[in-house]
Amino acid sequence: MSESGEVRTSSPTVDIDSELAAEQAYTDTVYAKLDAERADTAVRLSRALADQPGSSPQLRTEREVATTMYRERLAQLNGVEAGLYFGRLDNTDGSIARIGRIGLFDEENDYEPLLLDWRAPAARPFYLATAASPQGVRRRRHVRLRLRQVVGYDDEVLDLDSDEQGSDLGLAGEAALLAALNRQRGDQMRDIVATIQAEQDEIIRSGLGGVLVVQGGPGTGKTAVALHRAAYLLYEHRELLSSRGVLVVGPNQTFLHYIGQVLPSLGETGVLMATMGELFPGVKADRQESREAAEVKGRAVMVEVLRNAVADREQVPPKPWQLETEAGVVTLEPDVVRAARDRARAADRPHNVARRLFVDAVLDALAQQATDRLADSVEDGLDEIAYVEGEDPDAELLDDDDVADARAELAEAPAVRKALEALWPDISPQRLLADLLSDADRLASAAEGLLSEADQRAILRKRGTAWTPSDVPLLDELAVLLGEDRTEADAQRERERREQLAYAQGVLHILEQDDEIADEERLRVADLLDAELLAEREALRSAMTAAERAAEDRTWTFGHVIVDEAQELTPMDWRLLMRRCPTRSMTLVGDIAQTSAAGGAKSWHEVLEPFVGDRWRLAELTVNYRTPAEIMAVAADALRKVDPELEPPKSVRETGVPPWEAGVPAAELADRLSELVARELDEVNGGTVAVLGPPSLVSSLRSKVHRERLSVLTVQRAKGLEFDAVIVLEPEEIASASPRGYSDLYVALTRATQRLGVIRTE
């Protein structure tokens, strides 16, 4: 039965009413089980939160771990509420398997599965079985729910001798798939878990290791496949990935909002989803900048520019500096500074870490200078005094302790500290990059021979300007080049650990001497000595999810990284992501034909060769599920302008609605557009409409045509999104706006699932 009341079945002998009743009864059973597990988990969480574990580190850690586990389980159970049960397999051996978003079991009946998790190996025939290769399946059923009510089902009998079997499109669950494809789009993406096709399933279940590139044209389900792959990998490799986490990188916040509910609905909540501009903790990078600036900052040559910028902060004074101290004036000679700088650089450590070597060398030289001068003055005063009989007249007047005292005094002298900061500053990535991009002289020095004057002008900006997404990879690169001197912090941490350990040992000693103190109390205090006190803090912190910890730690490395619209990333973006995943366990999804960023990919080999050579594998999605054939025929013209050799993906359906075109006088554009938008909203009857155009038009028209269910976006903001109807403004202007303008136009023309219109001004 479809949502309009029609049952689709390939078995004419099925008793429809009894089948619906049976499916409803089973649906009631699995939802009752879901409710029971949800209630039980909520009670356990409440008890864990109310528990008072006392002072034992072990008990406190156990409490934190338990509450985190129950929170995650409760979020998982809440996330799968919609469409919990969606599939059934009637096997040739007489057994029946039912497929759902998560696995549920009947504890009272020897843990018989009520639902198989869609990711379980036993559920795979639901996505792969065909009449030619039934895999032990006699009948496959797609069950459709509205809330908790069964509203219909689609049956496929996988029997070559049946008159009803077969599929015009060669698709698994064709009726359910086409119903899903024709469904109206909302402001959030729906999962495809009930209608995954064989080529998609193969990619979703591909092995964890190595770099997998998923190349696919518009509408082939790249994003959905990537998200389902994240859920599958977390299911299949739970132990590894729950501790290291999975990072999903999207092109913009609009896109992340759009896909935000897919993973929870698939039973996963512990994934960090971010844009490139959000991958440097503490920095909000959302300011837009020129295409030229973003392209320059994305070049690989920026690594050398940044190295030069760091080196420029390691100065040698042009002439001696006279430094006033309480002990008198000391002279900082250029040769001394140069020798100290060379020594620090030779250690091949990050700038801020090597600074300690530089400071030590300079202070040693200054201390020796001060004590030598003091020794000379003392010796001059003793020239007229006879030595005590028996003293060695050649003995040193000042020993090592005197030199150490002089060094300590110089280290605290304001003039010395100021000089050291000027010559080799302890500097943050944010400060160095802000200085570099707002100072023409600093930029010219760092970029000499690397960037043209035009390139330098493109990235130069006023001091205090907000960060942009293309700044984030530069900040991350600088964080590596600069490093962080943790010597004092680590020393303080060790002192605290030793103090706490000594205290615990002292208390334990007292307890051991007092027989009146209970053994339980003695054991409780003994816990303080177990596995080092420092580990307690880390254990408490580990009770956070991997995603929560990763979001606040720039140095975090993930178990797996998934990148959507990967063709848009620049060489500097890739350097950042590769640092986040040193194991190179990655899934990259995109379409080279849709590359619009000036610094984006021209080929996957070009992107990956610097990092993994040829050690990556390619999977291709060839079927267009989103875009009807009528619209794809129009988009194919733009694709040929991108590359005549490229073939558009094959659409699986036609709508019978041809794309329309309108010419409008420029002065009447806002009024006429408003009328056409109203018409399209009526045509999609509760669906969504988007107006896509050049930035100049979009910004001026957005407020004039504002309506519910309407989005007015640039093509960049529309990447990865889909709408029931799309109106493309000024296609020629989109195409001519950049060297890759036809890629932008191709993207714009392939966002629609039902209707497409094009408007040109006269």
Task: Give a structural overview.
This protein is an alpha/beta fold and 762 residues long. The protein contains 31 helices and 21 strands. Helix 20 (487-513) runs antiparallel to helix 21 (519-526) and helix 26 packs antiparallel against helix 31. Mean pLDDT is 87; it is low at 1-7, 164-168, 382-387, 520-526 and 528-542.
Instruction: Classify the helix fraction into a percent range.
Output: 40-55%
Number of strands: 21
DSSP strand (E) fraction?
15-25%
Mean of pLDDT: 87
Rg over C-alpha atoms, rounded to the nearest angstrom: 34 Å
Query: What kind of sheet is the major sheet?
Result: 6 strands, mixed
Which shape, going by the Cα principal axes? globular
Strands in their spatial order, largest beta sheet? 3-4-2-1-5-6
Helix tally? 31
Map the helices and strands:
Layout lengths: L15 H35 L6 H23 L5 E7 L4 E5 L3 E3 L5 E6 L7 H4 L8 E10 L2 E9 L16 H9 L15 H7 L6 E6 L5 H15 L1 H7 L1 E5 L2 H7 L2 H4 L6 E4 L15 H7 L4 H10 L9 E5 L2 E5 L1 H13 L4 H32 L17 H13 L1 H10 L5 H10 L1 H8 L5 H7 L11 H12 L4 H27 L5 H8 L6 H10 L3 H6 L8 E4 L7 H10 L5 E5 L13 H9 L3 E6 L1 E2 L4 H14 L7 E2 L8 E5 L4 H16 L4 E5 L1 H7 L8 E5 H4 L4 E7 L1 H6 L4 H9 L2 E10 L1
Parallel strand pairs: 2-4, 7-13, 7-14, 8-9, 8-12, 12-13, 15-16, 17-21, 18-19, 18-20, 20-21
Antiparallel strand pairs: 1-2, 1-5, 3-4, 5-6, 10-11
Helix pairs in contact: 1-2, 2-22, 5-6, 6-7, 10-18, 11-17, 11-19, 12-13, 13-14, 16-17, 16-19, 19-24, 20-21, 26-31
